Amino acid sequence: MLLVISIFLYFLYLTFTLPDIKKLENFQPSQATRIYDYKGKLLSEIYLQKRIYVPIEKIPDFVKKAFIATEDKSFYTNIGIDFEAILRALINDIKAGHIVEGGSTISQQLIKNLFLTPKRTINRKIREIILAIKLNMIYPKDKILELYLNEIYLGHGAYGIEAASETYFGKHVWQLNICEAAVLAGLPKAPSKYDPFKNIEEATYRRDVVINNMLKEGYIDEDTAEKCKSEPINLNYDKPEKIYDYSVEAVKKWLVDRYGYEALTKGGYKVYTTIDKDLQMNASEIMKNNIELLQDKFGIRTLTKQEIETLLNQYKKQKKIKRLKEGNIYIGLVSDIKKNKVKILLPNFEGYFNYKKTKYFHKGMPVYVRYKGGNQFEFVPYLEGALVAIDQKTGEIRALVGGYDIKKSQFNRALYAKRQTGSSFKPIVYLDALMNGYTQVSVLKDEPISFWDPDRYEEWIPENFYKKFYGDVSLRYALVHSLNVASVYLYDKLNSEEVINLAYKLGIKTELPNVKSLVLGTADISPLEMATVYATFANYGKKCEPFLIKKIENSKGEVIYENKPNCQQVVPEDIDAVLIDMLEGVIKEGTGKQANVLGLPLAGKTGTTDEYSDGWFIGFSPYITTAVWVGYDIKKKIGWKATGARTALPIWIDFMATAHANIDKVEDFKFPDDTAYYPINEKTFSLSDGICDYKKELFIIGTEPEYDCEGNFRFYIPDKFLTFLNEDIPEFKIKQVENGN
User: Fold this and answer.
1) Which residues are marked as active site?
2) For residue 135, what pLDDT is reported?
3) pTM of this prediction?
4) In sequence order, which residues have a C-beta less than 8 Å from that of residue 553 and are 6 or more positions away?
5) What average pLDDT does this structure show over 86-113?
């Protein structure tokens, strides 16, 4: 009687302590969030469990039968448990003296995964049986099978049949064949033992067991069984390369801020970004290679006290590292220096790296190093950089590099670093001048000029790069050759508030100081802001807000977020076209002429700050706009004569070459109908008469010079109108002559 009461109380206890099966009605399994580029290529995955949930309707019948034949032959007829299997397992467990066999049905396996621990005890087994029976009383078999096939772990981090299909065969579950399904159905028993990537013989044996089970149950015929068993397992080794870099981290941050970390890691979102995967990977590699070259070229600057303190704090945080991982970046302390070899110490480790210029190192100096294996490292530059590439027609960010390597520093300089921009700010001022009636031949004074600096209580005297003055120069010449003094002279003639407001309209979000030196780029601005400004130039005065995420779908395929281009004309198209022509001149004949090697229609501007602490190049083609910055995280000299043309421009050139590599023909800039090219003599700031030298420069029709270089009034008909008159009006023949029209 006491035994009966005890059993009754035990089962009563279980009744009140067992999990509520009805919770499965709203069950949301943890699913991987997938991030794609704008062409649909997989960039990255974020998950706690790599799972892509698929409804039962999408799972082929033979896939279901492969698992049923192997894991639970009586699935569709049992009540959640198989008494025969339990009895057989019980006998074997008694013989062994401990639990060696479970005899679990699909329902029991599902219950164990969702509600119980994997620990093998009699108490857990009883709970499992009761819950499995309750599960079958509440839910239909197909629902139970759907949950099971999406929950089961199948090795290599893959949870569920869809993730496993992609992992092993590179295809969706509905694209599997019977033989492949048999491989997956053999994995639940021991995913590691039957892993086809590592143990192909064991995996083949297990697959054949599944095939024989399917044949025995009448799910397949003899011919199909023999065909499968005679074939090798064809695995997918060509897996899409996933990336973890500044672009992916920026997307993750945006998602966490909007939806929360748990939703990101479990929600099963599909995130479609604006990034071009191939371009992004190339941009990261280009940045890395060029920064290494620049560090070697200009040498290693003495570390500041702040840099040393920061690096030493990071060094101490590495004490918990038990194993070095190849490719990872660490901070070591220099312990010894020999010819071309530097010995370093890390907490719990030591090693060395080869470097030709050992004069830059001293004992106790903290250094960045990348682990190569075998106690060997390679030096990692202190120097940093950033790159932003934007499709100017939409505002879509195609590439985003926030530093040398995200393994070195997660700080995204492309988005958050605020640095002085140097002369790359000048085009904003020159655009304001064009909007106020200036033309390419408007005369500026490049001669000694000074202003009182109220902050320093002294005279501020701007200087040109080569420490000389050029006298009267044209607006175009001053910008193309980046003359500081002429630019300050121009800024002084303009309404400074108007210039600052124009900068905000173009894409600057940072508060700008109203000082004379603003024209020389003394304000701290992010690379993304500057890229936005130049993208507006490239888009003929139409600013498109930059964005990184186009669309997000939830696990049900419903669109929960969508972003479309947000563009607004902020500068008249014809005035902007004149600025583009001036910025083309920077590359054709000015500070950016190295870029002529690309043979593309390009426009842009260099930027260099005081003491060569920041190097910029920002420019565009009719296809894409790119901003590049190079410098140290703490403001200090990169090196002697480390101008934007020598630091940032090489990175820009390499990237733009890659960006245009697959474009058959890059069309030239197309300017508005109310603009035209005129032959200009730059010495007299007038039209050429055909005898004096000239360059073709763009003007809004009606603003071009009226006199030639000899002082004669000229009625000049631009080439495009000559073509129209000669071809479309046959009776009206006008031909250009050597000395005018």
Assistant:
1) 71, 423
2) 81
3) 0.89
4) 269, 270, 272, 559, 560
5) 69
